[in-house]
Write a structure and sequence with these properties.
The protein has 113 residues and is an all-alpha fold. The chain contains 4 helices and no strands. Helix 2 runs antiparallel to helix 3 and helix 3 runs antiparallel to helix 4. It starts with a helix and ends in a 14-residue tail after the last helix.
Length: 113
């Protein structure tokens, strides 16, 4: 969705911002795509944190793009809505993953009960 939308942005717009937005979207998708094949709890935790971080970065960059008028306001709100939903779903996946008793942070043992 982000790649398609970015083709319509001003040709003279800040290409660095467009590129950074595309990279954040790709990072989030790649981390979530790798999750099912992760080798263990630490790897899954890392991928979920990477996806959450990339989605947060993407949300911030889309807001910046709208404020700099690189992104059409209506299109920016639509994309931000998709990012918000992806963040909600990723957060739900993280909560579910934690409830199963796997460590919340890679490299740290689960808390003692």
């Amino acid at each position: 969705m982000v790649y398609r939308a970015s083709r319509r942005w001003e040709p003279n717009a800040d290409q660095g911002l467009s590129s950074t937005i595309r990279q954040a979207a790709l990072d989030a998708a790649a981390a979530l795509g790798e999750y099912p094949t992760a080798s263990g709890p630490r790897d899954r935790g890392r991928l979920l944190r990477d996806a959450a971080g990339a989605l947060g970065r993407l949300d911030c960059l889309l807001t910046l793009g709208r404020e700099l008028q690189v992104i059409d306001p209506e299109e920016g709100r639509l994309l931000e809505g998709f990012v918000t939903r992806a963040r909600q779903l990723t957060g739900g996946l993280r909560r579910s993953w934690r409830r199963r008793g796997e460590p919340a942070r890679a490299g740290r043992p689960p808390p003692r009960r």
